[in-house]
Design brief:
The structure holds 2 protein chains of 2 kinds. By secondary structure, chain A is an alpha/beta fold. In chain A, about 30% of the residues lie in helices and about 15% in strands. Chain A has 31 helices and 37 strands. Classes of the chains: A alpha/beta, B mainly alpha.
Chain lengths: ~950, ~70
């Protein structure tokens, strides 16, 4: 069911060419004017003359089955359904009359015969019982005649899904759930089975929800007008005392959510109907998997220890902060100013991220600051900045509804960006064409009512060869938009690139042996993309996490420029950001070479601006990147780190190399909500806060800045930004913020793309897509309209350079990695929720041919060995992967996926090459010894001492 | 800084710019990239390595590193 205060207008807004025409009519004697195509039900609701309804809701197309919403129209016979009847000029409608009331009572009484009054866990949340009570119905005259649905085919309550239950006895078969599954989510897992009185909602082949194709997005639960489908959390919860609009902290879609709070705790999370990014939808993570925020593993007291082999000791905030500051000062005095640094987090807010980089630059006095975007989308920033002039995606999500051809490269939106995937699938069902470029048969390649026109199933590591081959076809077949290029791009760079891609060495035929993709598929896909007319590229980490990640991003931009697919709705280049605030953390100046707004630290004018505001002298020398910090730690020149909300020991490649570097530090300060893998190497643990416990903003993949609002008080007493303030003050660099809005004001004052952003404006507009300034006071949904941010677009020559990571007789298979819907990144959050019901371990996907050659059966344990290390995983045999390619997710630390990934990285940004690792796979009897030890003794919290004297003297 | 790692990084950068037909432009591309993105101790290390013969560096990477200005 919807939020209590949600005014459901009954049917969606009119769409089409005629919506600008206003139609004047009269409803219950009141003059009303609405766009042409509007239903009577919606027009009446807009005039606050709501018509009773059951099967209608404004999130779904009108259905016309319940017969409750009948109205009278002057001059027309009968009683038309207001949900399916459009307004007409001069129409006079009556929504209330004795005749209508009598008919509605009759219909409602029949419904109540199957769903007796008082049968819902909470009648006030049941639309049927509320409506029946409004019509004076206490019990049905037909109640004694129990229907076949209840007496002949009784079904127990289906409580298989960990988050919601289905009680068939409360179902009125209105089909809202079925339609939500189809229209909103696009999974088509639900149907109405049987006929007449035998009709009932069925998941897949009449299976329990958990075993069905249901992806647990919850759209059906929210659409249900009764208690038939209901969140388990609210079956017994009191009605919410408050509802707080905030932003999801999972993927880069950045869904706007409403947290309902009952008795001081979150009782339910529902998508915000006005959320521009998610359009009123959510996924299994955002809607349901928020329980980690109050999980027993939360660390809420500061901890310190002198050596990483010691037990932890709980201390006061003052002592922890004082110790961390004194250690950083000691290290800098001994080893120099540049011997320490910090890491910002894409999970934290813009304000927190901005403060950490400010602390490093202003209080530490160095530019040794980096962010976890280093290991995911840093090539996006580099590639798009160089070609187009801005380090960000070009579109807003709704732009996909105008695309004729959708290209998905190295991404699996249904798994990693599910809410946007639902929007994309809606457009595909409406007829858009689909090209998938991926080594793996991602779900989008073929699912219900969606099938890729082309699946370019390339070998891992050959993206650039494919993009060059696509460009070769487009250029040599004369499919470029020459006037667009002449108007908007650098002539010299265009000529040079044109000559480069025209070289026969880049033809699909030449590249076939490298990419493994048949030339005719490349040619067909290239023609389809070029001819659009609106072609949009969406890409993910399968593009960036390669030794040629930045080259590939440039190649994508080249292709879009050459075909005129930038600068309007329905086209563009859109990186699908992995974490909620990857875009924001990059925007906020988290990289060691640039301030907020992507301005290099060596730029004197920019530096002077920051020095003036921050009242401190700043270094004009770029600092160390994360992998450089590891190298410097190992050579003894880097000794201290402050890491906020990032688990380097689990998420970064070549784990043994990372942990050796972390072990070499003299002071590692971790700020996190859980005692993560990296904390094993820390000397100070500062408790962090979840997104529910603080105010701030996130910036999603479409550059949309959205408010994060405090729902509950911080479990540890302080929001993350407050801890950074305390640390800075202890270091002797004063910070005096009392609310994150003041930090945003400072960001706006220092960052040209944020000039017009403030909390007041965010509250007023709901969200803002940057750039937001005098030229675009309400933000910029589509970038590069009319011209590129850099002026003329620049083509870059993108020669294919094979990765150093090659297969051999010793390592004959290529491993690539990815995510699964129910889990998120390193799993710190989702592993602490009931999402484990869907995915409780990482598995290695292996093609049947490779399995047979090795004598491996489904479910066997297999050893996976690379040049960097080895681990053991359970195997899943599937043709989702091609022969010679294996795949795994990386959500569980005990899987050790990064024990086997290598140090190879993108040439421009050092983004690790997670997507290509040569491995061998052999059958083994059981997990490795370290894995068995870990599984047997996963500590819920760090080993600690209490009430003792300070362990650090 | 492990010099083998820096040499590999420099060569990777050079491999991108080597597709540039004008070799002087390619060398400048590599030099500019290192001067903008490599931290001072990394630049110092690669400069010292070039001065010691530059073993392992590709011609473009070696030429670019030789043009780097020593950080203060």
């Amino acid at each position: 069911m919807y939020a209590k205060d949600y005014h459901d207008l009954g049917t969606p807004a009119a769409k089409g060419d005629s919506v600008t025409l206003d139609i004047a009519l009269e409803i219950d004697g009141v003059p009303v004017s609405v766009p042409a195509g509007t239903t009577i039900m919606r027009a009446a609701a807009l005039a606050d003359h709501d018509v009773p309804k059951l099967c209608a809701t404004d999130t779904l197309k009108q259905f016309g089955s319940c017969r409750v919403c009948l109205v009278e129209i002057e001059g027309r016979k009968g009683f038309p359904a207001s949900c399916t009847t459009e307004v007409a000029a001069g129409m006079k409608v009556r929504t209330q009359s004795d005749a209508l009331t009598k008919m509605r009572r009759g219909v409602l009484e029949l419904y109540v015969s199957e769903h007796p009054m008082g049968s819902c866990p909470d009648s006030s949340r049941c639309e049927l019982e509320t409506l029946a009570a409004d019509h004076g119905i206490g019990e049905s005259r037909y109640a004694g005649a129990k229907t076949a649905r209840h007496t002949h085919t009784p079904k127990p309550v289906d409580a298989s899904n960990p988050y919601f239950r289905f009680d068939n006895d409360l179902c009125i078969v209105c089909s809202r759930c079925v339609r939500a599954c189809e229209e909103t989510q696009g999974t088509f897992a639900l149907t109405i089975e049987g006929r007449g009185l035998e009709s009932r909602v069925s998941a897949s082949q009449d299976q329990p929800f958990l075993e069905s194709e249901c992806v647990s997005c919850g759209a059906c639960v929210e659409a249900c007008p009764t208690g038939a489908l209901m969140e388990k959390t609210i079956v017994t919860a009191a009605l919410p005392q408050k509802a707080v609009t905030t932003t999801c902290a999972y993927c880069g879609v950045g869904c706007s959510l409403v947290a309902e709070v009952s008795d001081g705790a979150v009782s339910r999370m529902v998508p915000n109907r006005d959320g521009r990014a998610n359009q009123g939808h959510a996924c299994v993570k955002g809607r349901f998997a928020y329980g980690y925020a109050t999980h027993q593993d939360r660390v809420t007291k500061p901890l310190i220890r002198k050596n990483i082999t010691d037990d932890w000791t709980e201390v006061s905030w003052d002592e922890a902060i004082r110790y961390a500051a004194s250690e950083f000062k000691r290290i800098q005095a001994k080893y120099g100013r540049d011997s320490i640094g910090g890491i910002t987090s894409s999970r934290c807010t813009n304000e927190e991220t901005f403060l950490v980089q400010k602390l490093v630059r202003a209080a530490f006095g160095t530019n040794n600051v980096d962010t976890c975007a280093r290991v995911c989308h840093s090539p996006t920033g580099y590639g798009l900045k160089h070609t187009l002039g801005e380090s960000a995606g070009t579109q807003e999500f709704v732009s996909v509804q105008h695309a004729d051809v959708i290209v998905v490269i190295g991404a699996s939106p249904t798994e990693a960006h599910p809410v946007f995937a639902s929007q994309m699938k809606r457009r595909l069902r409406a007829g858009a064409k689909l090209i998938v470029v991926d080594p793996r048969a991602i779900p989008l390649v073929k699912s219900v009512h969606v099938e890729a026109d082309y699946h370019l199933r390339l070998l891992p590591g050959t993206n650039v060869a494919v993009i060059n081959a696509l460009a070769h076809v487009i250029v040599t077949e004369g499919l470029t938009k020459d006037q667009y290029i002449a108007d908007r791009c650098e002539k010299d760079s265009w000529e040079k690139w044109k000559k480069f891609v025209s070289d026969p060495v880049n033809s699909p035929e030449s590249m076939e042996k490298i990419t493994g993709v048949k030339a005719e598929l490349i040619r067909g896909a290239a023609r389809l993309y070029a001819q659009g007319p609106n072609s949009a590229i969406y890409y993910g980490l399968g593009v960036t996490e390669h030794s040629q990640g930045s080259t590939m991003v440039m190649g994508i931009a080249n292709l879009a420029m050459a075909t005129g697919n930038l600068g309007r709705e329905g086209v563009g280049v859109s990186p699908l950001r992995g974490q909620n605030n990857v875009q924001g953390s990059c925007d906020m100046g988290s990289f060691p070479h640039e301030f907020s707004g992507y301005r290099h630290v060596s730029d004197d004018a920019t530096r002077a601006l920051f020095e003036s505001m921050w009242k401190v002298s700043l270094s004009g020398e770029q600092g160390l990147r994360i992998p450089n910090m590891f190298e410097a730690a190992l050579d003894g020149s880097f000794k201290g780190m402050y890491i906020q909300g990032e688990d380097l020991a689990q998420s970064d490649p070549n784990t043994s190399h990372v942990t050796a570097a972390l072990s070499a530090l003299e002071c590692l300060v971790i700020q996190d909500i859980f005692h993560n893998e990296t904390a094993k190497y820390a000397h100070v643990f500062l408790p962090g806060t979840s997104f529910l416990e603080k105010d701030g903003t996130f910036t999603n993949a479409e550059r949309r800045i959205s408010r994060v609002r405090k729902v509950i008080e911080p479990l540890c007493g302080y929001a993350d930004w407050e801890v950074t303030v305390h640390l800075s003050n202890a270091l002797g660099y004063p910070m005096n913020y009392t609310h994150p809005s003041q930090i945003m004001d400072e960001i706006a004052a220092l960052t040209p793309t944020f000039t017009g952003v403030s909390y007041e404006k965010l509250d007023r507009l709901g969200s803002i897509q940057w750039p937001c300034n005098d030229k675009a006071p309400s933000g910029t949904p589509t970038m590069h309209v009319g011209s590129f941010v850099r002026g003329k677009g620049k083509f870059y020559v993108t020669a294919y350079v094979p990765t150093n990571e090659r297969t051999s007789s010793k390592y004959p298979l290529l491993l690539t990695t990815g995510r699964i819907l129910s889990q998120y990144n390193v799993g710190a959050q989702t592993r602490r929720t009931a999402n484990l019901a869907w995915h409780s371990e990482d598995r290695l996907e292996l093609h049947p041919h490779d399995a047979e050659a090795r004598g491996i059966d489904h479910g066997d344990w297999v050893g996976v060995t690379s040049r960097a290390g080895d681990t053991v995983l359970r195997v899943e045999i599937t043709d989702r992967v091609a022969p010679g390619v294996v795949y795994t997710t990386f959500h569980f630390p005990e899987s050790g996926a990064n024990l086997i990934t290598t140090d190879n990285s993108d040439w421009a940004t050092n983004c690790p090459e997670y997507k290509v690792t040569a491995v061998q796979v052999v059958k083994v009897a059981q997990p490795a010894a370290w894995q068995r030890r870990r599984q047997a003794a996963v500590p819920a919290s760090p080993k600690r001492r209490r009430n003792e004297e300070s362990p650090v003297g | 800084m492990e010099i083998e790692r820096l040499v590999a990084m420099a060569n990777d950068i050079a491999a991108f710019f080597d597709s540039e037909p004008d070799k002087a432009v390619a060398v400048e591309g590599v030099r500019f990239h290192m001067s903008r993105f490599w931290e001072a101790r990394m630049r110092r290390a690669i400069i010292a390595h070039v001065q010691a013969g530059g073993e392992g560096l590709t011609p473009t990477a070696r030429s670019a590193a030789a043009l780097l200005t020593a950080p203060p």
